Every structure is written in structure tokens, then in C-alpha cells.
Amino acid sequence: MIAEDSPVIPSITSTNDNCLGKDCPSYKDCYVVRARKKAMEADLVVVNHHLFMADLALKDTGFGELIPEVDVLVFDEAHQIPDIASQYFGQSISSRQLQELAKDVNIAYRTELRDTRQLEKVADRLSQCTSDLRLVLGEPGYRGNWREMVKNPPVVRELERVAEALDLLHEVAKLSLGRSQLLDSAFERATLLKNRLTRLSDTCIPGYSYWYECSKYHFSLNITPLSVAEKFREQIEAQPGAWIFTSATLAVDDDFSHFTHRLGLQPAKQLTLTSPFDYENQALLCVPRFLPEPNSYGIADKLVEMLSPIVEQNQGRCFFLCTSHQMVRDLAEGFRQRLTLPVLAQGETSKQMLLSQYLELGNALLVATGAFWEGIDVRGQALSCVIIDKLPFTAPDDPLLKAGSRIAVCRGAIHSHWFNCLTRSLP
């Protein structure tokens, strides 16, 4: 098994950007192609939200489809749908896309077009300009307002350099069209990224949130529509049938209007079911006092010191859920130094392998993030304690939240789902 964060993964992964489609010599043997053909012939198809939204976005462009037309659609964890739909009905450009484009142009030069040295030069220039733009965007782990950031002179300068490098690569690649499938594909991507960068440079168009996000080495620039209700309603009308949405967090005080309004839904039936868990008699919620601020220096060490006795007393059987991968790494290292129990960490192997190891050990602490917040069902006493480093709610200064708040005042509630995550049957 390859670890989730293995640096080799990008080198062996084909994406929408660099896939050659039917021009690929391995097209007929491609696992993804075979899976799609099988799905088109199936009576029941199980996909995640992202693939479904990608299919809607693809159909909207008129270029085909990924999954077949169906009579009944069932969405579990449907509270995620509005945010995921916003991503696919918006636009974005990332440093990964730019770097991958530069890498593929370089590969085309080294393998097929050795007589066109200019390709290597323009690819290297685009790669360097992209890295320079990342540096001026600030600290990693931050999501900010692109409308405000694009007024910053250093950012404007580096953004212009990226645009110029992309234009130059586009022009140089055009001179060698038809000589390399890889370069032809790269040229099409360069055209697409040029248009996206132009669109992202114009932040005056209303009805959208403009935001950026930085990781340690990469960034993304994004445009997200403030409402997907009209777009989603059009999709429902274009695909008649039964659309069923289920989740523990769709209603507030038995009222579904907030969710239905965000997706433009006019439900024929609505149903709220009581929880099967006896929280009053079988659960205990503990909120410690005097903790340092979530992002303060040494917070991981403090949490390890405070919670190690609890994990030991509980004989493992514990999930520690975090809101960042860095916290996962810091906590896993700290707990391994203090605990006599086995400590598993997300990223060191696949999600399925981690769960199998956790259940097999019977006394482990699993430290994880995103992928383990939802969709995990560990029954009985195998999991009797769940700890989180902070409530995973969007920060008040998040650009998407602030933009949405300016056009609507929504009734809010702490979703019972997070209470479900916090509380488990005690030993």
C-alpha cells in the first residue's frame, strides 16, 4: 500500500488535465474507462458527491457524461451537496495545474521534440513564475479574499508574470502542434488556463465569491457562485425522477427550508426521524477548560500531555479527529512517545488499511482528519471515545462565509452530526 501523502502519487496518477483519452495507447486497457463502461450498463451505480457533480458539470458543457441517466437518485450526507455543487459550478486555477502543464511540456521536449529547445525554456519559466506567486501569497494553511489580495502590488506583479509566461508557452507550443500528442493536450490545457486566469483577474463581476487558498507548496485561485439554486434546479428539471436527500443535519428544528433554499428544491415529501442513540444514558460530553488557542505554538504538545491518561485509561479504542494534516502528524508523534498503546495516523497507509489495523489491534488510537469525519461506522466497544482538536466550523472571516452572509441571513445551529461524532457509548 502507498501512503496517502506519498510524493510518488502525482508521478503515477493521470488527471483530467493530462489524460489523452482515446488518443492514449492504453485506452482500451484503462481501468477508469472499463469502470465507466461497466457503470453505463449497471442497474445500480454508487458514486461519491464529487463524481456526481463532475458529471453534471460535464453534461452542462455538452461534451458527454460520466455516469448514466437514472430514475432514482439517493444522496447520503446530503448536507455537503450545496458546497460541493458550488465548487463544480465555479472556476479555479491552481499552481498544481500550472506546474503539471510545465512538466508535461518539458516531457514532450525531452522525449519527442528535442529540436525545439524553446519548449524547455518556456516550461521552466512558467514553473518558476508559479512558485514566485506562491511565495507572495503568504503563509500556508490560509484561505483569503482574492478581491483584496489582487490589489497587493507584489501579487499583481507576480500574477502578471505568470500570465506572460503562460501566454509565451501557449505561443511556443502552437508552433509544434501535430507533432506530439502530449504537447497537443498541453496546448489545449494552456488555452483553458489562459482563459481562467483572465477570468480570475477580473473580480468586479457580482454574484460570486473570489478567494484563494495556500498550502505549503501550492495555491489555488477560485471563483464560487454565491448561489447554486437556479443551476441545481435546472439539473433536476432536466432529469425527471425521484431525488432523495438524507443526512443527520438537513433540518433545523424540523425545518428543512435552509437546505431546500440553497439547492432550489421544492420537495414533495419531508421526513424527520428521531435518533436511535440514547444519548442521555449512554454518552458523556466533555469540554476541557483553559486550552490554548487552536493555532497557538505548542498546542499539540499540550493536547498530548492532557489526553494521554484518558487514552490509556480507555484502553485505546479512540479516534482523535483533527482539522489539519499538520496536527495529525504532530499528535501522532507526541502520542507515540508517551503511550504504551499502538498509534495509527492517517496518511501512512490507505484509509481501508488503517481501519482494518485499528479493528484488528483492538486497543489503538487512530489520529486522522477529513476523510474520517464522516462515513465511518465502527460499532460496539471498538470505538468508545472520540476526541476532536476543535469544532470543524468555518471561521467567521472565511471569504465564502462572509460573501454568503452579505446576501442572506440564515438561521444557524450547531449540527447534531458533530454531537454524534463527539459522543459514543462509554465502556
Explain the overall architecture.
The protein has 427 residues and is α/β, with parallel strands linked by helices. The chain has three domains: 42-89 and 228-263, no CATH class; 91-225, Orthogonal Bundle (Fumarase C, Chain B, domain 1); 279-422, 3-Layer(aba) Sandwich (Rossmann fold). 46% of the residues lie in helices and 11% in strands. It has 17 helices and ten strands. It has helices spanning 9-12, 31-40, 49-61, 81-88, 95-111, 117-136, 146-149, 153-174, 181-201, 229-238, 257-263, 279-282, 299-313, 325-338, 351-361, 399-407, 416-422, and strands at residues 72-75, 91-94, 142-145, 208-214, 219-225, 242-245, 318-321, 343-345, 365-368, 385-388. Strands 2-5-4-3 form a four-stranded antiparallel β-sheet, sandwiched between helices. Strand 8, helix 15 (351-361) and strand 9 (365-368) form a beta-alpha-beta unit.
Write out key terms for the chains shown.
10 strands; alpha/beta; globular; 17 helices; four-stranded antiparallel β-sheet; 46% helix; disordered C terminus; 427 residues; Fumarase C, Chain B, domain 1; Rossmann fold
